[in-house]
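OP here, attaching both records as promised.
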Amino acid sequence: MLYSVVIPVLNEQDNVLPLIEELFEVLGKGPAFEVVFVDDGSTDDTAARILSAKPRFPNLRLVRHARRSGKSAALRSGIGVAKGTWIVTMDGDGQNDPHDVPRLLEAAEKDKAIALVAGIRRKRDDTVWRRIASRVGNGVRQALLHDDCPDTACGLKLIRRDVFLGLPFFDSLHRFFPALIRRHGHGVAMVPVNDRARRTGQSKYTNFGRAIAGIFDLMGVVWIMRRTTLPPAAPEV
């Protein structure tokens, strides 16, 4: 199996079925893939609706957390059971466009050194305040980490499974993929992608809450990168 689409969800009962339909319709004629949803402690019918679609889509899988653990933990759970060599990460609210997935795969095929292809949203379908907060956060992060990525918050990414599993794990890890993957000696590519309006429901994040958590996360990543030293090539003798 070439790739697995891993989608963390929390209380997205009205979004999951349209997303499943779209994914299999758009990607069904390409390379072999699977879709792994990770229900991060939903209290609505999210899990039940995903399970209701399994008879029609054999490559649809569901992992469930007993309690809310966060997006990075959900990604780790999904990637841990995934069968694909490559992992496509995607949000469960319908904002990411499945039509962009083949373009991520094409970018990875061009250079074997690439371990991450990050989606960069051309035009965010979001509130003015959220766009401003994101721009400020991205500026501070780039200044400290020099990751050269203008949009790490985009949920649509392609990452090699073995590389992800080799990264240090912490909350909000998904926001620092470009910096950490480069620090571990792998290549990073970026591809413009579409951003769509959320189908239904509300975001699980607030600007203030994300900013406070982001400060502590950023300081932690600065420390991790400074304490990460890659050994020289060590051929077997």
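Record two, same layout:
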Amino acid sequence: MKVEDIVIFALKNIKQKRTQSLLTIIGVVIGVLAMVVLISLGYGVQNYIHEEMMKMGSNKITILPTKQLGIPPSHLFTKKDVKAVENVKGVDTVVYGWYGGCEIEYDGEKRFVSYYYATPSRLKKVYENSGYSIESGRWLEDNDKYACIIGYGTAHNLFDREIKVGDVIKIKNKKFRVVGILKEVGNQQDDNSVILNINVGEKLFGNEGKYNFIIASVKEGEDVEKVSEDIKKALKKSFGDEEFSVLTAE
């Protein structure tokens, strides 16, 4: 059969079964678009994580309780897992806590932001020398209760009236005084954020004793990849399975 005959035959079939042909074409187009979107999202997430880790520094290791980003973890880290990471040779400081999203209220307006909570002294030690510094005010302290630090965007861009150090915002109807504002980082997740003390955050969001991130800084002169492999081994025993990710800048 000639090529011309095949084309004519195909066109006749399309004309005779217009609805079926249209649905098939739409299905193929949607399938291709879906694949393109998924691949783009995958690269987007990968690039975002890479950028964030490079900002924190090449000696930082991020540990998440899931194998695949975007999929909710089957179980979360506990103090037992944190201790396992702390005991790995070459690990310096370990930060652990929770990252999520919440609504905050200021001057009668409500906006959605990212929130983090962790032990302030640990957070400061890991983050302060990694591009996350204070624009005005101060860092949180371990004995702070209803106080918070906010991102540059939360302070300057989200509300009609800018938030300043000393102002009060509400989270879940609890009042928090802003003691510090971070300098602009350059991404929405960090700039539109609020940071709380872990003791208050756990009670506020109901996640006491559970953590969805651990960040370990590696001592100077230690092999980061070697330390990350040792963390994987230690966590496998502590966590009970391998459904977690240990991410380095590499």
